Amino acid sequence: MSLLDAARYASEGYPHAEWTELRRRAPVMRVEPAAGDPYWALTRHADVVAVSRQPRRFRNWPRFKASEGAGELAATPTLITLDPPRHGALRRLVSARFTPRALRALAAGIERIAAGVLDDAADAGGSEIDFVTSVAAPLPIAAIARMMGLPESEWPVLFRLTSATVGAYDPEFQQPGETPADTIARSQRELLDYFAGLAVQRRARPTEDLAGLLVRARVDGEPLVDADLLAYYLILVVAGNETTRNAISGGLLAFIEHPDQWEQLRADPSLIDAAVEEILRWTTPVIHMARTAAADVELGGQRIAKGDLVAMFYPSANRDEDVFDLPFEFCIDRQPNRHLAFGVGEHFCLGAHLARLELRAVFRQLALRLEHVELTGDPERLASPNVGGIKRLPVRLELAPDPEETRA
Ligand code: HEM
């Protein structure tokens, strides 16, 4: 049984029964896959936290994924492949733009995008739509593209290329004869070419958006060299799409499967923030991140040797019975909710508050407007050991007009 088998994630979804067994019997387990490098599988919340909070002992370079082909991603060093102290220096260049306070200015815009996307879905007039293509995918692209300052006409290209980068293990995104590593390399090359053009434009004409800010940024008094600048653009645009998309579609699916929770949210809209956290815990879109031990260390009674790879399984940590009461219940008023969907520590998701805003906007709108929803087919899952994706979610939706828009 492999915890990194892409095809298995497509056919079965998350292996929760196996993770539960591992948390109980072998929470730090040595895995030696037939293909790919050996690694330690961490399935408990406490161990994921311990590793993530020691970035000098457990490093992201050269590997931050345990899956085959991930070396290609590391071939373009980005924020996520850096270690202290350079990691912090680069992260600080943009982090002020991603704080809850800074994002407050964007909240109304994101609400409008969410309302618009739902208006388009409503135009289907109750006939079947794919919720992923119609709602869950366009919102995250639009949000980060706006922050970056990318024109709407270019969003479809970004959508295609970022989907191929994250979905490289899925045959749908591969060209004939390609391995996942080839698909990642090809789509990243295309994205980097695109960003090279963007950098030229921003150098010629300064702007206040994220793309312009990074052109002007200095680390130790020096501007970013092209490779670092383009990689920064890349991680900003790639990291937030597939992940947020899957929290949105997985969130809708959770509500369809737990109608009592949906009724509770409709009855008490003040639960929206707690509901967003529970959607994040329940869906946990990132399957794993990895670290490389920089020295011999003991973890969960096992001796991890210098150079060993450890893979942290976030969806398992988010069902840990030692941390969550009734972890297999979807409870939108769960308090506390110390989920690790965004990781923790040094590499804690830079876009966490942006993702929260997007989820809040879309589920708030749905709570206001959704009159009826039903699944019209089985969800189709992405083949990936990295992101637990829903590729298609066929539904029939009936939506009332946006009441707030009507008043405006
Ligand atoms: C529901 C949506 C999202 C989820 C579940 C998610 C999850 C994660 C996780 C698990 C990590 C790695 C944490 C670690 O290694 O310790 C991460 C890092 C990151 N995420 Fe997100 N993310 C989401 C949305 C976004 C968005 C919208 C952006 C937009 C910019 C974004 C940008 C990043 C970046 C740049 C990093 C690397 C941070 C660093 O290395 O310092 N993410 N995210």
3D architecture notes:
It contains 18 helices and 14 strands. With 408 residues, it is an alpha+beta fold. It has a single domain (6-407), classed as Cytochrome p450 (Orthogonal Bundle). Strands 1-2-10-7-3 form a five-stranded mixed beta sheet. It has a three-stranded antiparallel beta sheet with strand order 4-14-11. It has a two-stranded antiparallel sheet with strand order 5-6. A hairpin with a 7-residue loop joins strand 1 (28-31) and strand 2 (39-42). Helix 6 (100-122) crosses helix 8 (138-148). The N and C termini lie far apart (55 Å). The model is unreliable at 69-74 (pLDDT under 50). The protein binds protoporphyrin IX containing FE. Protoporphyrin IX containing FE is lined by residues 52, 79-80, 91, 144, 235-236, 239-240, 243-244, 247, 285-286, 289, 314, 341-343, 345, 347-351, 354-355. Residues 52, 79-80, 91, 144, 235-236, 239-240, 243-244, 247, 285-286, 289, 314, 341-343, 345, 347-351, 354-355 line the site of protoporphyrin IX containing FE.
